[in-house]
Amino acid sequence: MTNSSAKSVIVLDFETTGLSPNMGDRAIEIGAVKLVDGVVKDTFQQLMNPGFRVSGFIANYTGISNAMLSNAPSCDEVMTEFSEFIGDHHLVAHNASFDKRFLDAEFERIGASYAGQFACSMLIARRLIQDSPTHKLGDLIRHKQIEHDGVFHRALADSEMTAKLWMVMVEELEAQNIVNPSFALMQKISKTSKNAIPALLNNL
Fold first, then answer.
1. Phi-psi region of 202 (alpha: psi -120 to 50; beta: other; left: phi over 0)
2. Is residue 86 within 8 Å of residue 1, measured between CB atoms?
3. pLDDT attached to residue 57
4. Confidence (pTM)
5. Pairing state of beta strands 39-47 and 27-36?
6. Taking each helix axis from N to C terminus, what angle separates 121-128 and 183-190, rounded to the nearest 10 degrees?
7. Euclidean distance between CA atoms 110 and 192, whole angstroms
8. EC number(s) (predicted)?
9. At 72, is the secondary structure helix, strand, or coil?
10. For the chain, where are the alpha helices, taking DSSP H only?
11. What does the pLDDT read at residue 14?
């Protein structure tokens, strides 16, 4: 890996035609932020044409209309570009199992793969920000009073929010004298029960 620090990752978000690539759903937008040592060094955003019309529900939910998608490049073109963008970085998403499913399905179509591993900012937030009313991205952003432009459910805006939330959690660990938390530690936190988190952090 280029860097196993939790501060150097790709934070990504997909907008899709539905919930399951196994049911034929496809990605319609990808947004991603490249963090290097905790600083945004690059971003990636692209609409992609799934090859069929999206439902009215999805168009309303995402703000992405069929007219917007009609001139967009194909999923295959965009995913080929995106595979170059992520390189061998580790990956972060809010509710990562969803984004991982779509990334895996889209990459499989073009014969691409990625070397990095995923971490889920939602699972980590459930353990590190236990007093938040919910662990939806918008609620966490408001709970932590993280600056945002009010746009949700568009891929780049959501990945930018997730990147800010991720860095807040990393910095809060540093405030507990955990120097430069590793990506592996963030993954471990996501898999540790809430009650066991204080002991985990105290023993580092």
1. alpha
2. no
3. 96
4. 0.95
5. antiparallel
6. 70
7. 35
8. 2.7.7.7
9. coil
10. 56-62, 66-70, 75-86, 96-110, 121-128, 137-143, 155-175, 183-190, 197-202
11. 97
Rounded CA-CA distance 77/72 in Å is: 10
Q: How far are the Cα atoms of 15, 17, 27, 122 from residue 20, in angstroms, in the given order?
A: 12, 9, 10, 19
Angle at 87 between CA 13 and CA 62, to 5 degrees: 15
Q: Report residue 100 as tokens.
A: 């991982």
Helix (H) or strand (E) run with residue 45 in it: strand 39-47
pLDDT at residue 184, as a whole number: 97
Q: How many CB atoms lie within 10 A of CB 186?
A: 23
Count other Cβ atoms within 10 Å, centred on residue 67: 8
- Check: CB of residue 196 under 8 Å from CB of residue 66: no
Report the distance separating Cα 122 and Cα 148, nearest Å: 18
Strand 90-93, strand 9-16: pairing: parallel
Report CA-CA distances (Å) from 123 to 43, 78, 156, 159: 24, 28, 21, 16
CA angle 166/121/105 to nearest 5° reads: 120
**Structure tokens belonging to residue 52:** 């069929």
